UniProtKB/TrEMBL annotation:
Membership in a protein family: Belongs to the aldehyde dehydrogenase family.
Name of the featured protein: Aldehyde dehydrogenase family protein
PANTHER family: ALDEHYDE DEHYDROGENASE-RELATED
GO molecular function terms listed in the Swiss-Prot or TrEMBL record: oxidoreductase activity, acting on the aldehyde or oxo group of donors, NAD or NADP as acceptor
Active site residues per record: E266
Keyword field: Oxidoreductase
InterPro entries membership: Ald_DH/histidinol_DH, Ald_DH_C, Ald_DH_CS_CYS, Ald_DH_CS_GLU, Ald_DH_N, Aldehyde_DH_dom
Domain Aldehyde dehydrogenase: 35-493
Amino acid sequence: MTTNDSLRAAVAGGLPVLPAARIAGRAVHACDTSQRSAIYNASTGATIGWRETASASQIDEAVQAARAAFDPWCATPPTVRGAILRTVAERVEEAREPLVALQMRVSGKPRVEAEADVSDVAATFAYYAGLCNEAAMFDAEPVALPDATVLAERFYDPVGVAALIVPWNFPMVTTAWKLAPALAAGCTAVLKPSELTSPAEHALLDLLAQAGVPEGVVNVVNGGAEVGARLTTHPLVDKISFTGSTAAGRHVMHAAAEDMKRVTLELGGKSALIVREDADVDLAVSLAVGGAFTNAGQMCSATARILVHDHVYRKFMAAFETAVRALVVAPPETSGATMGPLISSAHRTRVQALVERGMAEGARVAFWGQVADKVMVEEAGFFMAPIVVAEPTADNVLWTDEVFGPVACVKSFRTDDEAIALANGTRYGLVATVVTENEEMARHYRRRLKTGLVWHNTPQLIFAQTGWGGFGLSGIGRELGLAGLRSYQELRHAIAPAPR
Ligand code: NAD
């Protein structure tokens, strides 16, 4: 059976029991069934598979395997590593349809979003495959010195064993953002998928093996926070790349401090979308809907704080209401579905509790979207209607805290300084969107907004070539782009006498 066949089978029938770990190409199972947790279909609430939890000794074994594989992988010429990464990208494209179906089945994402995820994964592997052919990424380069008697060189070595910990909202995508540069740099890895969406990572791992990634170079440990936490404290781990909540990120940073492990943290956000008075309002509405309700708002980059100039506020709100009410909140198989469920019952309860707290603090709902009638009657999935709150106070929890669900707040402003102050008035700083027809003002916003990425008049386009990451509580470091590769390399220098 080829991987694509097994993927198709997983999508059509039940999912297999995912082993506690995959170590040097072997599936390693838990000793007993008490170590099994259900994997749900977020659209129906049905159990569609099981995943085991890795024990302390299995985590250790996985790290040891990555350590043992490090020297040969690091010694593999970058161009050879690149050829393997290119094959991964091709395998992902070949498996596109079953991968899309798997994403839809587990996370309940609408087809268009699941397709975008798969495209992103392939593009990320292809980009880092390309960087592997650029000598400047790996070869020693001379450094100009003011002293002619000596020569200096700068060079880059892989950091070592990388622990890669990912969340559930874009499972294969965040994994690709870590794995592709780590492998390109010559690192080996132990991956800890989210406990809720691990089938996606296991499917990707099958493709990596098929593409020729040697055994032991990428290992997987399954489980929740405790497995992640144990992985971060393992003394043979040299680097941690973590994507998840700011709260968990703090624990990870503490754990890394013990051995001074290198860390990249991609954490939460509370991003703004700014609609200037000269904005194309139709464009602004479509960017607001995409920014707040793609993936049911479960995005670190959700632009859930929408700032609208007084002069266009009424027009914007009327069109925004029409657009939000038109969202088809339904399982991905439903024709025209545009918004899926939340990932779990527990997460929906958390989001609803935040909404209730926001209301108790005085927030006013301007309008709601709706969950499709059929879904309300027949489905037991984790759906929630989109909510738009108008003019919350600056200290309302819905304005200050990351909700990670389909909840957007709108506030009006009168001047650009006020809009910029409101947008920057957060301890996060991941992304921002500005909607304006004035190029000069767009540049002004780009300079003044304190975020890792600013979009002007575009949807949330993400390219492997540009960096991803933010200020403040949004994390440390950058993924993607050249910075993504460098974050898996140690910068080194050598100085020696110049030849006479
Ligand atoms: P989470 O922090 O609960 O979990 C993320 C991952 O970390 C999971 O695999 C989890 O098992 C593991 N984990 C939890 N506690 C840990 C610990 N103490 N040590 C090690 N590992 C631990 O987050 P989540 O609920 O899965 O995802 C949602 C969060 O992720 C949101 O806050 C969102 O903003 C953030 N996120 C950020 C980005 C980004 O690029 N900045 C992208 C996606 C998601």
